[in-house]
Amino acid sequence: RWAKPGGPKLKPGTLSHKKVRFHDQLKSGQLASLTKGKVAKKIKLADQYKMKHKGDVARRLNLHKHAIAHAKHAKIHLQGHHPHFIHHGLISPHYAKACFQFHYWGPGHFAGVWWYPKWHPWVHWSWHYHVHPYWDPRPIWCRPIFYRPCPLWVWWRTPVWVALPMVSSGTWVDVAPVMIGSQFDLQLLAVRFVDPGHPEQKLGPRYRVWFRNNSERSITQPFNVVLFAANDANLAEGLLQSGIRVTSIESDAIQSVDVRLPIEAYSMGLDAQGEPLPFTTLHVLVDAHREVAESTEANNGTQIARADVLPIDPVVFEVKPPEAAGGAEILVAGEGLGPQPGRAIVSMGGLELEGEILGWYDLGVQLKLPALPLADAIEAEIIIIRGDGAAANPLKVIVLPASMGGVALPVFPE
Fold first, then answer.
1. Which residues on neighbouring strands pair with residue 361, listed in sequence order?
2. What pLDDT does 27 receive?
3. 47: how many CB neighbours lie within 10 A of its CB?
4. Were both Cys, which of 238, 335, 343, 399 would link to 385 (CB 3.0–4.6 Å)?
5. Is 33 in a helix, a strand, or coil?
6. What is the distance in angstroms between the CA of the first residue and the CA of the last residue of the chain?
7. Among residues 382, 362, 51, 76, which one has the least CA distance to residue 193?
8. Shortest CA distance to 304 belongs to which of 113, 168, 180, 406?
9. How many CB atoms lie within 10 A of CB 105?
10. Contact 268/231 with Cβ under 8 angstroms?
11. What is the DSSP string of 194-216?
12. String of b and e for 335-368 (b: at least 16 CB within 10 Å)?
């Protein structure tokens, strides 16, 4: 089992890498020490962790509003391959060498030109945690259900949509139940931005969609969930689209699914200089082909400005290698980490230490552990903090002294 933070020192190879669930750690008090540091208090880490059992933490704490104000000051300046990220963590002076500047067309509070990592092996490693349908390492509380793609949408005159719960892009947290008796009703609850894809791999943006079965009976008739990229509020034929086919959903159950739009979604218009512009409006439609006989279809869809779609909460689920010497490079795979470097806090023995950020992507972080004169192996916690202050769950890593870990080498040397 995992040792408690600040507990006994550990020898390499003695740690069982069976992962204890985050909520079990929180309930048992194992994470209490992580929330007492100066950085942790500044981002209200204790509150964030307490709220994670329901989800949608960043929205509930209004972190997107903080990010909008912060973005005016968090500009990137390139001075001879040394980008300075104002109010962010410790950034390697060589950060820009492995990046390229590109527009980020995700949530509006992250919009602008940011540094994308080139498709290096560490980015590839982070990415491919998200594409295997039969083995998904993500915690169950943030894991979408994998379904097969669906056929193209056939146009029909959709109703005027009712508003999504709480905010323009909705929420699935604390939504009042809808009582409809024995009839069927599917309700679209929320849509969130997951990652922007990658221009070098011709991959478009990915979104996560939540929907609920308001019925007293399970829906066993398969139905489709489709996303459309558009430049106006009209849900018309011929729009760029992508969707999945849901096989069933239990009574009073909520499901989430991921849908990725084609890369062409980023070039559906032109600016004044003739440069490509992305779509402006995202349409989301549950039961897109009207296969379920519902009591109402007015709560099946929405149209929302692309920039108004909020990001998913950050989460991390794998660290490589699990044991590394101080000063060595490690990789963290996750999702919802945002486009710009935030902070990588290494909590060790009650201290909050900064990990040096070598690479940052919505789905992963490459960082260097602090170099410390350790006499023996010690357990540490890695906490990845997004640029808007949203914190991911902690991951454990064993930090080895140089005598036990050898020379600190990059995980993927160039």
1. 364
2. 67
3. 13
4. 343
5. helix
6. 36
7. 362
8. 168
9. 22
10. yes
11. EE--BGGGTB--EEEEEEEE-SS
12. bbbbbbbbbbbbbbbeebbbbbbbbbbbbbbbbb
